[in-house]
Amino acid sequence: MTLAKEIPTSLNGNLPNFSTEAAPVVSEEEMRQAVRTLLLGLGENPDREGLKDTPKRVVKALKFLTSGYHQSLDELLNGAVFHENTDEMVLVRDIDIFSSCEHHILPILGRAHVAYIPDGKVIGLSKVARICEMYGRRLQVQERLTAQIADALQGLLKPKGVAVVVEASHMCMVMRGVQKVGSWTSTSAVRGVFSEDAKTRQEFMSLIRHTPNFS
Ligand SMILES: Nc1nc2c(ncn2[C@@H]2O[C@H](COP(=O)(O)OP(=O)(O)OP(=O)(O)O)[C@@H](O)[C@H]2O)c(=O)[nH]1
Ligand SMILES: [Zn+2]
């Protein structure tokens, strides 16, 4: 493993825990070897037929599950911010979340509800889901994921307010550890008018609880 002088520009600002000096560059082969070592440590034979391509598959899967480190808001937005004279709440509900907890690298499965009150600008609806994907496909804690989604929208649109609720089940609490099947966690991040005005916050909460008749 060597130390990079610079983080590739695509990662700038996305790797929270490395300074520019210390960002390690790890080859694909080194990553596969690490998975092979894990398999050996688990008492498996990494050379048996079913496992011989597993290191390659695991590295590919983990790279996909953390691909959000290589995205940027600019890129995913693709210019889809539009001037619109509205200040009514926009809510995108039930956005599925597939993230990975940073403590165990196990799945966090759930959904996000994202609302904002525009102040002259709206964003393409699909981009709200793409923002959730970008931050979801990183090693996360749910609280940070929720706040990052809220802060991204706040920064991009400078709206009157943003509210985000994430409801998710952590496989590290279900499949191992305390093993609480069916437990889930709700986190919220409110900015602007949603934090200042209880009525607006309540409207958001009641909209995310309402069951539409097409679902
Ligand atoms: N706040 C928060 N905690 C999380 C999240 N994901 C996992 N955790 C918790 O992180 C904690 C790590 O605790 P440790 O005691 O260091 O790890 P552990 O021995 O594996 O803990 P147990 O899960 O209790 O067996 C656990 O309580 C997890 O439930 C998250 O998104 N937010
Ligand atoms: Zn965990």
TrEMBL record:
InterPro entries: GTP-CH-I_C/QueF, GTP-CH-I_N, GTP_CycHdrlase_I, GTP_CycHdrlase_I_CS, GTP_CycHdrlase_I_dom. Residues 32-209 form the GTP cyclohydrolase I domain. It catalyses: GTP + H2O = 7,8-dihydroneopterin 3'-triphosphate + formate + H(+). Its EC number is 3.5.4.16. Keywords: GTP-binding, Hydrolase, Metal-binding, Nucleotide-binding, One-carbon metabolism, Zinc. Pathway: Cofactor biosynthesis; 7,8-dihydroneopterin triphosphate biosynthesis; 7,8-dihydroneopterin triphosphate from GTP: step 1/1. Belongs to the GTP cyclohydrolase I family. This is GTP cyclohydrolase 1.
